[in-house]
Structures are given as C-alpha cells and as structure tokens.
C-alpha cells in the first residue's frame, strides 16, 4: 500500500460544498491512506470560512482562518480537488484561496490538483484559475502530480471512499508525486 513508500504530511482540500461530492470522496480516500510515515489532514468544508474581507486579514484572525493557515503551514505539500462552476472555481473555494493570500503559508510549498470530472474537457477553467492564484502566492505547482482521475458515483462505496483499484492506484501515484522526496 501507499503508506509503505510515502512519507510526510499532506493536506488535502476539497473545493466542493457538497458532502457527497466526488471531489470530497477523493479527499477522504487520500485521508484514509494515513498511517506510519504518512500523515494526511483534510479541509472538507470550504463553507466554514467567513467571507474574505481584506480589512479582517490581521491578527486576531477568525478561528477558522487561523486553523486553515496552520494546517497549510504544517503540511509538507497540499493537494486540491475542486469542481468547476460556470467555467471557474466555485466561489466558496476561491474564498478559501483568498484567505491564503495574506499569509505566506503556501509560499514555496509543493501543491497539485486532481480533476475528478468524468468528462476530461470539464474543469480546465477552474484549474487555470487555481494555477493563477497558486502562482500569485508563490506555491510550487508539481505538474507531474496534477492529474485527471475520473470519479463517478459507482466508484464510491457506502463509506464515502473510492473503492476502484485502478482509481486508487492513480490517486496513490498522485500522492507520491506531490510529496517532497
């Protein structure tokens, strides 16, 4: 299994507000890989953050923003998984990203994203916007870890985790690729 060959602390962030989304299923699945030398934390509720306001981006930060920035700072790498709405990032996920701009937690941090849309043509606008924001905060995009891994509801078990062996292998390869050696 993955944990035998991967080490470090990975933060997975779902950009979806739907609890039953394929994006969150992928993140929960990655979180289930944790054991031994691999620690995986997750942010699965992007709606928990207050609306970004630059006037509020100072100490003391809202507790949820402080927790987000602390989780990013503690991670060795960050893996994003977000749907696309109307050709770009969902507003709640963009709000999460806006809260990262005032800190430097993503600066120099290895990051990647996974697109789970069954149709490979979907999601490009969201990932282009994500790449722009990640470039702005000077994150290090690990291109080899950015992938299209289609996830349909048939691949998700009743526990909310992905069960398909081929899909699990692709997810494991992504985790290995994003974590620093």
Automatic annotation (TrEMBL):
GO cellular component: cytosol
Molecular-function annotations in GO: FMN binding; oxidoreductase activity
Residue stretches making up the NADPH-dependent FMN reductase-like domain: 9-145
Signal peptide coordinates: none
A Pfam family assignment: FMN_red
Entry protein name: NAD(P)H-dependent FMN reductase
Naturally occurring in which organism (per UniProt): Williamsia limnetica
